[in-house]
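Pasting as-is:
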Amino acid sequence: MLTIVYFAWVREAIGRDEEQVDRPGPAMTVADLVATLAARGGGYAEALGDPARLRAAVDQRFVPMDSPIGDAKEVALFPPVTGG
């Protein structure tokens, strides 16, 4: 199983903090996963429909959206973090 963790407005739109999904194939990228989740519609489409608005971490390491998920245990999806 792969745990997907959602933060900030992504979590609010989807309505959950995290979920577990069947482990995708080793070639699946974060962007592929986001597209698959967005296809569920509803809050998923609202939160994940524009991947340019998202950042990701795989096993707690920031990664580009085109990174393969491989054998990761966790993928986190969140909006860009700003400081101030």
